Amino acid sequence: MKLLRALRPAESLSILFLFSLIAVSAGLHERLSHAKVLILTYSALFGVQLVLIANREALVKKKSMDVFCNVAFPVLCVIVIFDSLGWIVHDINPRDIDPLLIRLDYLLFNGYPTVMLESLQSPLLTDILQVAYSTYYFLPVSLGLILKLRGSEREFDKTVFMVLLCFYLSYVGYMLFPALGPRFTMRHLQSTELRGLFVAEQVQTLLNTLEGIKRDAFPSGHTAVALVVLGLAYRFHKGFFAVALPVVALLIFSTVYCRYHYVVDVIGGVILAGITFFIGEKYYGYWEVRNDISR
Predict the structure, then answer these.
(1) Cys-Cys link to 29, which of 35, 158, 209, 227 (CB 3.0-4.6 A)?
(2) DSSP codes of every residue in 178-234
(3) What total of structural domains would you count in the chain?
(4) Any residues with CB less than 8 A from the CB of 244 and at least 6 apart, and which?
(5) For residues 15 and 42, what is the distance between their CA atoms, to the nearest angstrom?
(6) CA–CA distance, 42 with 55 (Å, rounded to integer)
(7) Are 182 and 114 in contact (CB under 8 A)?
């Protein structure tokens, strides 16, 4: 009980989400081709998180361990859980919703956005937008490290919690609404391949190798996480916000231009960012009141 009361919001969130994944993997093990591996993976993360919580006071006295507990381990959880989705999403929900998303995009634009954007296509623009798309992996970590290094502990803790909440909610979205995205489902409609001038193909290959083929199109996690980071930066670090604003704008546009997402996915990502802030503020405010932390 004492351990539970000591949990910070980000730790509570990871504990709850990992426990839920263990329960889902165990409960649906007959439908999962890699059930044992999934249970072991989630249980290992769950166990490490408990150990870090139980030894937090001793660990945070060492700067390297403080960074591991509060930065590296949350990042590890996000990466490992995301990587595991390829073994769980389609097994528990085999019906992709791409046809619905394609129809919704067509209704909104009277055409297919990824095809329509071919008129803007150029090798240099493709390079720029492919790099912008990749900044998604660095934006949350960059903001977190900046806040951590400047000693803004409360702002850092809230940032980690909000970003984790957004990631985990997006993973739930992938399980509920599996979709491959237009780069796979609409390839036959595209008249040209995306070609870069310098780096686009290399970045595409790297991302395809790291991410694999997952049903992770709806909602757009890139959009949601980038907007959450942008909102937090506006509150906690105006300098980072000024730099991140044009990057995030390009990133969101790139999700459709680079054919990773439907426009409906992006709309879903915007809504997810709003849900993240609504739920996150409610819970974080409750936690602060419960622990008598002045704002």
Answers:
(1) 35
(2) ----HHHHTGGG-SS----SSSHHHHHHHHHHHH-S-S--SS-HHHHHHHHHHHHHH
(3) 2
(4) 139, 143, 229, 230, 233
(5) 10
(6) 20
(7) yes
Compute the half-sphere exposure of residue 28: CA atoms within 13 Å on the CB side of its CA. Answer: 18
Least confident of 30-39, 49-58, 215-224, 256-265: 49-58
Residues 52, 170 within the same domain: no
- The verdict on 54 and 149 lying in the same domain is no
The pTM of the whole model exceeds 0.85 = yes
Query: What is the dihedral angle through the alpha carbons of 189, 212, 225, 285, rounded to the nearest 10 degrees?
Result: 140
| 207 and 71 within one domain | no
The answer on pLDDT for 4 being more than 60 is no
Tell me, yes or no, whether 136 and 274 share the same domain: yes
Q: Are residues 80 and 102 in the same domain?
A: no
- Of the chain, the percentage scoring pLDDT greater than 70 comes to 95
pLDDT, residue 198, reads 86
